[in-house]
Amino acid sequence: MIHATPASLEETFSPPADSVLWRKDFLLGAATAAYQIEGAVDEDGRLPSIWDTFCATPGKVLAGDTGAIACDHYHRWEADLDLLSSLKMEGYRLSIAWPRVMDQAGKPNAKGIAFYRNLLQRLKQKGIRTFVTLYHWDLPQHLEDHGGWVNRDTAYRFAEYADLMSRELSGLVDAWATLNEPWCSAAHGYGSGHHAPGKSDPVYATQAMHHLLLGHGLAVQALRANDPQAQVGIVANVGRGTTNGKGVNDQRAAQLFEVQHNNWVLDPLLKKEYPLALFELWPGTEPLVLKGDMEIIGVPLDFLGINYYFRTNVVSDGKHGYREVDLLDVERTQMGWEVYPDGLRDLLVGFHRTYPNLPPIYITENGTASDDKVVDGQVDDRARISFLNRHLAAVDAAVKQGVDVRGYFIWSLMDNFEWAFGYERRFGIVHVDYATQQRTPKRSAQLVTQFLERRKALP
Ligand code: FCB
């Protein structure tokens, strides 16, 4: 059942006067990722990525969709950046496709690099702050052929890629993020197999995570050396786990859910250790960690990117773990994800208490999917407007409890290729008609733009 929300939350975007959103130094922007929007998968020397391979495997992606064309952003980037600035966005989070910028031998691909240089130069001219993610899941397939992230060598290849990009693009990037959501790469890519490369073994998952994080730490060194003006960080997806069970074991189950989703990534980064409880859940999966690895992984960060979407209800599985049980009667998005803004506030406040060295936070993704349609040139996406209002209020509540949150990026600038769900799920504040590639800003985009104009006009 969808609970009715007050009309003001669905129809207007006007945060309370004391909200952090009114602060001009609180960055508001929108996010995308290379494979989800670019298309042009075999142009200008781009190599295949694990997502090209995964999409070509029958049954892996809904309706057999692929990123081959996507939003055709590779050819339409200039118009898309004009759109971004017409929406008055102050920040843009994008990612670089690793397979576009290096060949198999690790040599630079000038055409691929030129694409990103032009893009970043234009963003700079427009005065839009850039958050650039190096790895948003599109591993070059030739590296996967040698074991991908389960192979330690991939961490070193990633550091070389970071080194090349930060030499080539130095001065054009405001903030570098090494990885997007290593949890998804490890758990979905190598654990459940729901994402590329579609491997399924918990031992692979924990080892892949270790190499992803090692690659992150090594990349940070290169980014800092080559582009000392830029901020350097990482983006983690986090999930809220709660229980409607009554037993002590159910409480423990909810904690374990969060250990598995959040601490698995944040503890190595911020405490230089893996949470022991992770290996209670998955006995015998401890990764091979070499001397010095945890020091590299735990390098101090300038910022932590947080991606938040939903909460999960769990109960004890009767053994040492947890089992997910869907709550009935809750509001859900087109993805089936529960709309639960308090989860974002609670997680932020919780991290602030748990990690004394928590870096400043940017919400690098938050948003919702809905079955949006263009009617008479308009897209009425009131569920999204309500979602954004409530999640931004949750961020504000966390700030008021002392958490240092400096900005928020809406996922996503435009409808795009939503991984295993293909094009059916629409996350954009701009509607994309995939047959014509026409972009139509939805009502949510119009309202956010009006807000940004009002904020800018303030003294
Ligand atoms: C996140 C991904 C992003 C997008 C959203 C909906 O896990 O980082 O690319 O697909 O989910």
What's a quick, concise take on this entry?
The chain has 459 residues and is α/β, with parallel strands linked by helices. The chain has a single domain (20-457), classed as TIM Barrel, CATH 3.20.20. It is 41% helix and 16% strand.
Write a structural description.
The chain has 459 residues and is α/β, with parallel strands linked by helices. The chain has one domain: Glycosidases (TIM Barrel, Alpha-Beta Barrel), CATH 3.20.20. The protein has 16 helices and eleven strands. An eight-stranded parallel beta barrel has the order 1-2-3-4-5-6-8-9, surrounded by seven helices. It has a two-stranded antiparallel sheet with strand order 10-11. The longest helix is centred in the middle third of the chain and has 25 residues. The protein is globular, with a radius of gyration of 21 Å.
Descriptors:
41% helix, TIM Barrel, globular, 8-stranded parallel barrel, alpha/beta, 459 residues, 16 helices, binds beta-D-fucopyranose
Q: What is the CATH architecture assignment? A: Alpha-Beta Barrel
Oligomeric state, counting identical vs distinct chains = single chain
The unique ligands bound to this protein are: beta-D-fucopyranose
Provide the CATH superfamily.
Glycosidases
The total strand number stands at 11
The CATH class turns out to be Alpha Beta
Can you tell me the number of structural domains?
Answer: 1
Main beta-sheet annotation: 8 strands, parallel, barrel
Q: What fold name goes in the CATH topology slot?
A: TIM Barrel
Unreliable sequence segments? none
**General shape:** globular
Number of helices in the DSSP assignment: 16
| Spatial strand order of the main sheet | 1-2-3-4-5-6-8-9
Roughly what is the average pLDDT, rounded to an integer?
Answer: 97
> Would you list the SSEs in sequence order as H and E?
HEHHHEHHEHHEHHEHHHEEHEHEEEH
First-residue to last-residue Cα separation: 44 Å
Gyration radius over CA: 21 Å
Q: Portion of residues in helices? A: 40-55%
Percentage of residues in strands: 15-25%
Given helix and strand content, the structural type is: alpha/beta
